[in-house]
Design a protein that fits this description.
Strand order of the largest sheet: 1-2
Shape: globular
Oligomer: single chain
Structural class: mainly alpha
Distance between the termini: 66 Å
Number of helices: 19
Number of strands: 4
Strand content: under 5%
Largest sheet: 2 strands, antiparallel
Order of helices and strands: HHHHHHHEEHHHEEHHHHHHHHH
Helix content: 55-70%
Length: about 450
C-alpha cells in the first residue's frame, strides 16, 4: 500500500533521472578527495598535496560569481539549460583529461609540480561550484515531488565515490623491499590497490556522462517535460542547497521559490513570526566552522592521518565523505533551531579539531600506537565532520528563516577561503607540518 501511494502521481523514470542529475553536483571533487591516499604517494607534492587542492577549489568560486554577475548585468540572462549543458560537457572533458593525465608533471619555479592534476581539478571545481547556482533552480521547474530525488542524488555525490574508494582499497604502506639480487626498491601503495587511480577516475567520468545524459533526457524527453510546472527557467532565482533544504512552506510555488511540501509529512503553513536568533553568534559559528571543515582541516588531513599508515588515512577520508551527506539529510529530517545546542555541537567539534591539528603538528611522529592512536584519529575525523555538517545545514536554515541567508553564504565562502589560504601558507611556506617518506 505504501509503495502504491509513493508511485501515485509521479513518474519513476523522472525520479531516476533526477537522482543521476544530482550526482554530478559534487562527485568530481568528492571523488578526488577520497583518492588522495593514493595520490599523495605518487605525486611530487607528497603530503602537501591536499593544501594545494584546497586552494584550487576555493579559486574555482569565480564560476558562480561570474554566472551571478552575468544574470545581474546582462539584459538577457544566459539560458539556464544551455549553461547546464555546457557545464556538464566541461565536466566530462575535464574528467577525461584527469583520467588520462592526472600524473603529468612539469617543472615550475625549479620544482616538479602536478600540472595535469591541478589544471583538471580547477575545471572540475569550476563545474561543481557553479552547479550550486544552476542545478537546484532548474529542478524548480518540475513538480515538487522530484526535488527530493534530486537532493538524494546530490547527497550520493559524496557517498558513491566513497563506496568506490572502499572497493579499491589501500592495503598497507610504502615499504622498502630487497630483491634477490640485493637491490632495494620502494614498493608503492598503488601496487596493492585492487584497481588503478586511472581506473577510479574513469569511473568518475562514467558517472559524469550518465549525469549529462540524465539532464538531456530531463530537458527533452516528453515524459519528463510533462512533469514540469513551469518552463521559465532563465527568470528563476538561484537557490542554494541549504536554502532549498530549509524551505518548508507548502504554498510557495511561485517563480522565485522552490517549495518542498513532499519532503516531510508534517509540513504546515507558517503564520507565526520568525524566531529571534543572535545574528552575530550564528554567522560567527558558520564562518568558523567553514574555516575548519572546508578549508583548514582538509589541507592537513594527510599530516594528521598518514603517520598511522595509509589504511588509517584511507578510512578517515572515505568514512568522513560518507558521513557528511548522511548528516546533512539528518539535519533536514531532524532540524535543530536551538542556538544553545548548535553552539554546544560547534564547541565539541572544535575540540575534536584541536586534537586533529595536534596530530598533524606531531607528524611524522604518532600520538599513541598505530592501533589506538589510529583508531582515535579515524573516529575524530568522522565525528567532527558529521557534527560540522549538521551544524552548517542547521545554521543555514536558521539564517534563512531570519533573512540572513546571503550573509551566511558570504561568510561560508570567506571562512572556507581563509582556512585554505592560511593552511597553504603554513604547510608550504612556513613548513610547520612535516611528512615522512620511506627511503631505501
Amino acid at each position: 500500500m505504501m509503495l502504491k501511494d509513493f508511485l501515485r502521481n509521479r513518474v519513476v523514470l523522472v525520479d531516476l533521472l533526477a537522482v543521476l542529475f544530482g550526482i554530478s553536483s559534487w562527485i568530481s571533487i568528492n571523488g578526488l578527495w577520497v583518492e588522495l591516499p593514493l595520490l599523495v604517494q605518487h605525486l611530487p607534492e607528497g603530503w602537501a598535496l591536499p593544501s594545494y587542492l584546497s586552494i584550487i577549489v576555493q579559486m574555482a568560486n569565480i564560476g558562480p560569481i561570474t554566472y551571478g554577475l552575468m544574470r545581474s548585468c546582462m539584459k538577457t540572462p544566459p539560458s539556464q539549460n544551455r549553461s547546464i549543458t555546457l557545464l556538464l560537457a566541461v565536466g566530462c572533458g575535464a574528467s577525461l583529461a584527469l583520467a588520462l593525465g592526472w600524473d603529468f608533471t612539469s617543472v615550475i619555479d625549479g620544482k616538479m609540480r602536478s600540472t595535469g592534476l591541478f589544471i583538471c581539478v580547477f575545471f572540475l571545481s569550476l563545474v561543481d561550484c557553479t552547479s550550486s547556482v544552476l542545478f537546484l533552480p532548474y529542478m524548480g521547474i518540475f513538480r515538487q515531488v522530484y526535488l527530493n530525488s534530486y537532493l538524494i542524488g546530490e547527497g550520493m555525490s559524496g557517498f558513491v565515490p566513497s563506496i568506490a574508494a572502499l572497493a579499491q582499497g589501500v592495503s598497507g604502506n610504502p615499504v622498502c623491499v630487497t630483491l634477490e639480487n640485493g637491490t632495494s626498491i620502494i614498493q608503492e601503495v598503488t601496487d596493492q590497490a585492487r584497481f588503478t587511480t586511472s581506473g577510479f577516475f574513469i569511473f568518475l567520468l562514467g558517472m559524469m556522462i550518465l549525469s549529462l545524459l540524465a539532464f538531456l533526457f530531463l530537458q527533452h524527453l516528453p515524459t519528463a517535460r510533462s512533469e514540469r510546472i513551469s518552463s521559465n527557467m532563465s527568470s528563476r532565482s538561484s537557490a542554494t542547497f541549504s536554502d532549498a533544504l530549509q524551505d518548508t512552506s507548502p504554498d510557495a510555488v511561485d517563480a522565485d521559490t522552490i517549495s518542498q511540501e513532499s519532503m516531510t509529512h508534517h509540513q504546515q503553513p507558517r503564520n507565526k513570526q520568525p524566531v529571534k536568533y543572535n545574528k552575530y553568534l550564528l554567522l560567527s559559528i558558520q564562518c568558523f566552522i567553514c574555516f575548519l571543515s572546508n578549508g583548514a582541516l582538509p589541507s592537513i588531513q594527510s599530516y594528521s592521518c598518514l603517520p598511522y599508515g595509509n589504511t588509517v588515512y584511507h578510512m578517515a577520508v572515505t568514512l568522513n565523505a560518507m558521513a557528511n551527506p548522511m548528516m546533512a539529510f539528518l539535519a533536514f529530517f531532524l532540524p535543530c533551531t536551538r542556538q544553545t545546542v548548535i553552539t554546544a555541537l560547534a564547541v565539541v567539534g572544535s575540540l575534536l579539531s584541536a586534537f586533529i591539528i595536534t596530530t598533524a603538528l606531531y607528524s611524522p611522529a604518532m600520538i599513541g600506537t598505530v592501533e589506538v592512536g589510529g583508531t582515535f584519529v579515524v573516529l575524530t575525523w568522522v565525528v567532527s565532520g558529521a557534527m560540522f555538517s549538521y551544524v552548517k545545514v542547521s545554521v543555514a536554515g536558521m539564517c534563512r528563516d531570519s533573512g540572513w541567508l546571503f550573509h551566511c553564504g558570504v561568510l561560508t565562502q570567506v571562512g572556507s577561503a581563509g582556512g585554505a589560504l592560511l593552511m597553504f601558507i603554513l604547510v608550504n611556506q612556513v613548513n610547520l607540518f612535516q611528512g615522512y617518506y620511506v627511503t631505501c
